[in-house]
Amino acid sequence: MSDSTTDAEPAFEIAARPQRRYTRGAGVEYVGGTVFSLVPDPPSADEELVALAERVLDGDAYDYGDWLDLPMALYSVHDRGTGDVFRVSVRDGAVELHVLPETDPAGLRALYRRLCDSSDREWHVERRTDDE
Length: 132
Fold this sequence. Notes:
Blueprint: E1 2-5, E2 19-23, E3 27-31, E4 33-41, H1 46-57, E5 62-65, E6 73-79, E7 85-91, E8 94-99, H2 105-117, E9 122-130
Antiparallel strand pairs: 1-9, 2-3, 4-8, 4-9, 5-6, 6-7, 7-8
């Protein structure tokens, strides 16, 4: 399922939460869930979006880490104000907000606002849900 909005203030309604699955070999896996893709207009290169995301995350509002050696930017983010924890990735010209089981919309909205305030672009928000 996919939804798209260009509202000035998207609701960030979480349609499906991921379920944690614990396996012996792989550790924790997440099955299903919701991802919000924040797509800038005009488009930006991934490198520019990584720099923007890191500028916002470096502020006082967040604790974050990028401890995995991946070919793309992937951060685990804790919003100090809302207490929300979620993942942020950058790929294919979008900043993606990955909902975790305890994530609430307030933390997602706060990051969206900060990205908007820190850039001179319009942002389109697309929501994808996965039931399996």
